[in-house]
Amino acid sequence: MKIKRLAFLTIILTYILIVFGGYVASSESGMGCGPEWPLCNGLMIPVLEGDTLIEFAHRIIGAILGIMTAVLYFNIQKSNQVRDLDKASKVLMLLLIIQILLGAAVVWLDLPAIIVSVHLMVAMVFLALLILIWRRADEQPSRAKIKIDQSIQNQFKVVLILLLLTLFLGAYIKHRSFGLACSWFECTNGFMPVSFPEMIQTGHRLLAGVLAFYIFILTYLSLKNRWEVRLQNRLIAASLLVLGQIIIGILTIISYIEISWAVLHLAFGTALFAIICEAGVFASSSSRIKRLGEKRSNHYYG
Which residues span the domain enclosing 100? Predict the structure, then answer.
């Protein structure tokens, strides 16, 4: 199987695992296998029903993802065409090991909020690396003029950092049961938070607001300044996801954190992260491909 296709399939499975992990948390099935890992209720294959079925299914998906990641790594190592991805593939394997250890710690320590939140962050970085590998697996040098400068690439880096912080706080709020500390519009004593849960919830919302504004501005600038069309399309898609996230976030609170809305909130957030990450890699790859083309051209005519 081609490395690009394998990387894409691994991205899809990673996305499914992250969203399904949100369902495990929202349905309170995280301890469905008891405080045991890698066994589930003392068995390799437990009685598959209720919370045990949900948690065990999550572990099975994770195991399949681990195998696919290992296959991707070895394919990259054997391929002469993508040896420049050697470092990325090694970091990917390191993140996989860290994720396995964090997953075990989450079970052994009975779902501590901070470790669960870090677990999600590592998963997001893992997803970002997969997107990088997928985008660069079959790059071809080009001498075409591409209107993507370094300042634009830096903007995507800022957005990704804001996204990671927002997702981290969201996960922490979820696992500390702070989701209803404030209503969808204000907290108990008005707009100013008083208690720690209200402060964390308000901080999450403010960060999400800054992030949304940033993405909207970038989308506007991309259209106004006629950035590369494919980059414009990605930013438009990101803006639509942000609008969806705002609506789903409100519905999640109004519904008293109903499972379906909570999972959809994570699904949209993860999709937003993936699109912004892919757009950032596209922007940096475009400049990189152009430089490679210029170097090869100079070498040929030199």
Answer: 1-138
Tokens (6 digits) for 86: 């050697």
Residues 156 and 126 in one domain: no
CB distance 21 to 120 below 8 Å: yes
Same domain membership, residue 28 and residue 157: no
The average pLDDT across 23-43 equals: 92
Measure the CA–CA gap between 228 and 246, rounded to whole angstroms.
Answer: 27
The whole-model pTM stands at 0.89
Q: Of 178, 189, 88, 176, which is closest to residue 133 (Cα–Cα)?
A: 88
Q: Are 34 and 40 in contact (CB under 8 A)?
A: yes
Q: Are residues 152 and 295 in the same domain?
A: yes
Do 2 and 131 belong to one domain?
yes
* Confidence category of residue 105, pLDDT binned at 50, 70, 90: very high
Residues in the chain: 302
Distance CA 259, CA 291 (A): 48
Question: Roughly what angle, to the nearest 10 degrees, separates helices 150-175 and 113-136?
Answer: 150
Half-sphere exposure of 184 (CA within 13 A, CB side): 12
pLDDT tens digits, one per residue of 173-229:
999 988 888 887 777 777 778 889 999 999 999 999 999 999 999 999 999 998 889
Angstrom distance (rounded) from CA 302 to CA 289:
20
How far apart are alpha carbons 166 and 265 in whole angstroms? 12
User: What average pLDDT does range 46-61 have in this prediction?
Assistant: 95
Range in 88-97, 209-218, 284-293 with the lowest mean pLDDT? 284-293
User: Which of 138, 173, 197 is where one domain is finished?
Assistant: 138
Sequence letter at residue 217: I
